Amino acid sequence: MELLAIAAIGLLLAPVVLAIVSLTTARRLKQEVTTLRLTVSGLKQEVSEIKAGFKTAGEDQFDDSASGAIPSTDAREARLETEPVPTQGKPVSAEDGPDKPQDVEPPRVDVPQLTRPVVQQTPVPPSQSMEEKVGTKWSVWTGGIALALGGVFLVRYSIEQGLVTPAIRVAMATFLANSLALVGEFARRRENLSAIAGVRGAHIPGILTAAAIVTALATTFVAYAFFGFLGPFSAFILLGLVSLTALAGSSLHGPMLAALGLVGSYATPALVASDHPNATALFVYLAFVTAATYVTARLRGWFWLAVCGTVGAVAWGFVWYATAWQYDDVVPTAGYIVALLALAGLILKGDEPDGSANIDPLHLTDRQLVALLTGISLLAFALLRMSGYDTVSLTVIAVTVAGFVAAAWRWPSLLVLAPVAAILFAGAYLTWHLPGIIEHTRFDFVKQHLNLFPIAPPPLQQFLVFGGGFSAFFGIIGFVALKAGKRHYLWAAVSALTPIVAFAYAYFQATGFQHSIPFGLAGIGLAAAATLAGDLFDRSLTARHRDLVVGIYAVAAVAALALSFTILLDRGWLTIALALTAPGIAWISVRREIFVLRYVTTVIGAVVIARTVLDPAVMGTDVGTTPVFNWLLYGYGVPAVAFAGAAYLFRSVKDDLHSGVLEAAAILFSVLLVTWQVRHLLNDGDIFDTNIRLAELSLHTMTMLGLSLGYQFLHDKTGRRIPGHAAALLSVAGLVLLIAGHLGFANPMLTNEPIGNNVYVNLLLLGYALPGVLCAIIVRVSADKRPIYYIYAFAGSALLMIFTFVSLEVRTMFHGATLATGPTSDLESYTYSAVWLLFGLVLLITGVVFGKASLRYASLPVIVLTVAKVFLVDMSNLSGILRALSFIGLGLVLMGIGFLYQKLVFPQLRRPAVQGTEDTPAPK
User: Fold this and answer.
1) Average pLDDT over residues 896-916
2) Best CA proximity match to 151, nearest among 126, 128, 124, 178
3) Which of 600, 608, 594 is nearest to 664 (CA)?
4) How many CA atoms lie within 13 A of 474 on its CB side?
5) Which of 153-157, 203-207, 535-539 has the highest mean pLDDT?
6) 59, 105, 311, 730: which one has the fewest Cβ atoms less than 10 Å from its Cβ?
7) How does pLDDT run across 652-664, given as a tens digit for each residue?
8) Cβ(567)–Cβ(623) below 8 Å
């Protein structure tokens, strides 16, 4: 029944096929006749023009007695173009001809310019209409795809229905593939013989051949994977022959066949499905298809074909991982990955350009091949994750990494594969999780949502051996490459940085950032090795390559040393150790003139600053009880001195950003040292006491203001910007503490903190008088150096602090050590008025005597405040003699102030003008 059905379908389709063939033949013949007519017409026109040209030349030619022969048309044209025509009246030189008299001018002859025959070109056919496109292109393309799919679906249908035996199915599919190939070849030869140029249709032979290729690949795959008619060796041979056929066909029929064959080849495993998928069969098939694709791409220069083939091959690998993966598939998958890498490298690698040895390898990078190899390597990484880091998958990673490094060594255009190999190794190693040895709660989200960690990991020993082996491999191969003359910083980066990354993660996984003497010693060994390598290349490399190479090894040495400090040291010793590396690196940078080390030192300074900002108490909670000489002195004093020394060394060469960062770090640590020492001194060694009292706050404020003065002086002497910025920031911090602390949360009037029983020498002197004096000193020092608003802010603060001190002293006279308790008596209120008035008068007299206008200006708000208090407060609150004395005293003082201004202030202000008037003659 199946055979009858197929025969019936064939009989029904035969007329349609014959009609299409007839229509195509008729179109071709018609186009051929049109071409012949155009050719004959062009030849006739050419002959006519040649005859007309000879006739005109025969009528106008002259008799050349000297030569005795009639020159040809081409000769005459050449002579007219090369020989100058003599002008009338000018003698002809002897060089013009020995037989011609020099005083006789030959008659001028006008020879007509012959026009070369114009060959009529074949007219360009007009643009195709939609009907022509449908009839000549789209129908053929659709038909070719339908033929390919029909062959595949026919096989699938026979499998599902069980209509015929497996042998007959395979035979029918083979017959269909051969028939399509023969018809395509026949059509190609007839097309070449006819040479039809009128119809721009689709390439029918190429599409028929593509359908044959797809059907043949599907048939071979089914015969091997599902029916067992072919063994592995026979399947390899047949798949190779079919792939070579596709290669030969695309060479004859162009990229269309290659594209269709590629799509059909990679779609076949999905279309011809099986209930029992076989990884070995699938990957062998894909390897052969990919090999044929790469060969075709290389021979024809179609790199897009190689890209598409790689995408298909890699995509099938991930599809298998996601849908049908089993642990038994490790070996065939590993072979498939290695085969893809080998095929891509051996087939697609082109020749190195001439003179590549003198060109930067990064400018020669074969980016396309590097991208393909990198994409294939993702399969190796995924296999490692799927298999739980077993021996086979680790071997694949090792082979891939070694192959990449070997390619980078062999070909300069593939140098980028060396860091790609290092990144592949690092990616595999950094995702290698070892549950049961150490668990980290911060990875819980990753484990739950990304499922990156294998269920059954290998033991710790395998983890450490793998990391240590490849760290040594990268370290040695990069060093040897540089010694062998491969002068490029990428080899230094691979050699120096890869072992550091592996070492840090191995320490993290094995110990969980706990102290470990073996790991600490290993880190010191890495630092020593990087230092020796950098020193060797510093002496042997030229200036062109030295800076980057030596700088990379220096970065590795510093990183390894820092890791060693982290592993071996605790508390603040890590900060101390990192800071101490700064002057050492700065000294090497200046001594060896390695500019890149400035960046290394800057990074160290930034890291230490960041660590200090995040955790200012770098020494921990137990710093000792001894004043000054405790852990704070080492934890902050040593880094301050170290960074100051590094900044000084850098400034001896160049004052730039790097020296500025280190100088800022030194200033920061010096400020923190003083701040923490104050806390330690006033809190019995407890630097984390949450209570801040007036005495401590006063010392902090005066520390900020005093350091501000010191850095301002340093800025004035040296002109460096960093101390100037530090002075401004510290002064602003002091102002904030004055306003928010001294007048706010630490004010004894609000906290009722005892200030001492002595009226004159007590806490108020430290909390208000001394900060006020410091503010006045800052005003004096900053004159003509800071903006006017800066001067006004500190002048106002100085006046406010001294005024508050005087007022609180009056409060102390009446209330004792605690100022916030008890009512305010009339005598106390009168005393405030008297003292304020006296304070303002002292400011005014001092300003007049010493000629300081600022003091006179400062007295005005005090006097105005006193007047306001007398009239608004004392008038209503005081009674009796005190009220009278208050107003009498105020009146006398105000009159005295007026007299003072009239007799002393204003005459002094007018004296220069009067003197000038006496000394200068009056104008007439």
Assistant:
1) 57
2) 178
3) 608
4) 34
5) 535-539
6) 59
7) 888 888 999 999 9
8) no
Q: Which of 198-207, 249-258, 474-483, 848-857 has the highest mean pLDDT?
A: 474-483
Long-range contacts of 58-64 (CB under 8 A, 24+ apart): 60/110, 60/111, 60/112, 61/111, 62/107, 62/109
DSSP per position, 15-64: HHHHHHHHHHHHHHHHHHHHHHHHHHHHHHHHHHHHHHHHHHHHHH----
Asked whether 272 and 221 are in contact (CB, 8 A), the reply is: yes
| CA gap 308, 305 in Å, rounded | 5
Nearest residue to 774 (alpha-carbon basis) of 805, 802, 816: 802
Considering only CA atoms, give the Rg of the chain: 49
The answer to whether the CB of 676 falls within 8 A of the CB of 746 is: no
Q: Nearest-CA neighbor of 385 among 421, 333, 346?
A: 333
The structure tokens listed for 188 are 């190609």
Query: What stretches of 484-516 show up as alpha helix (H) in DSSP?
Result: 489-511
Q: What sign results for the dihedral spanned by CA atoms 238, 241, 243, 249?
A: negative
Find where tokens 């100051």 sit: 644
Taking the C-alpha atoms of residue 416 and residue 46, their distance in angstroms, rounded to an integer, is 62
Closest alpha carbon to 148 in 185, 188, 176: 176
Task: Tell me if 596 sits within 8 A of 550, measured CB to CB.
Answer: yes
Own/partner long-range contacts of 447-453 (Cβ < 8 Å, ≥24 apart): 452/385
Query: How far from 778 is each of 52, 467, 707, 726, CA to CA, in Å?
Result: 111, 60, 11, 14
The model's confidence at residue 126, banded by pLDDT at 50, 70 and 90, is low
Q: Give the pLDDT of residue 580.
A: 85
CA–CA distance, 430 with 436 (Å, rounded to integer): 17
Of the listed ranges 152-166, 250-264, 421-435, 824-838, the one predicted with least confidence: 152-166
Q: Is the torsion defined by CA of 541, 544, 545, 550 positive or negative?
A: positive
Q: What is the mean pLDDT of the chain?
A: 75
Per the CB < 8 A criterion, the answer to whether 50 and 119 are in contact is: no
The top-scoring range by mean pLDDT among 107-121, 170-184, 226-240, 594-608 is: 594-608
For residue 783, report the phi and psi dihedrals to the nearest 5 degrees.
Answer: -60, 135
**CA separation for the pair 476, 402 (Å, rounded):** 13
DSSP conformation letters of 343-406: HHHHHH--PPPTTGGGS-GGGS--HHHHHHHHHHHHHHHHHHHHTTS-HHHHHHHHHHHHHHHH
What's 757's DSSP letter?
S
Tell me the pLDDT tens digit for each residue of 306-354: 899 899 999 999 999 988 888 888 999 999 999 999 999 888 887 776 5
Count other C-beta atoms under 10 Å from residue 710's C-beta: 15
Q: Looking up tokens 């995509």, which residue turns up?
A: 315
pTM of the model: 0.58
Structural contact between residues 867 and 859, judged by C-beta atoms closer than 8 angstroms: no
d(CA 831, CA 732): 34
Residues 6+ apart with CB under 8 A from 732: none
Q: How far, in Å, CA of 418 to CA of 422, rounded?
A: 6
- Greater confidence (204 vs 219) lies with 219
Pair 594, 550: CB distance under 8 Å = yes
Amino acid at 498: T
CA distance 838 to 390: 92
Q: In this structure, how many other beta carbons lie within 10 angstroms of the beta carbon of residue 180?
A: 24
- SS3 of 622-653: the string is CCCCCCCCCHHHHHHHHHHHHHHHHHHHHHCC
| Alpha-helical runs (H) found in 126-203 | 130-133, 139-161, 166-194
Q: Which amino acid, residue 477?
A: I
How many angstroms separate the CA atoms of 27 and 21, rounded?
10
Helix/strand/coil for 542: coil
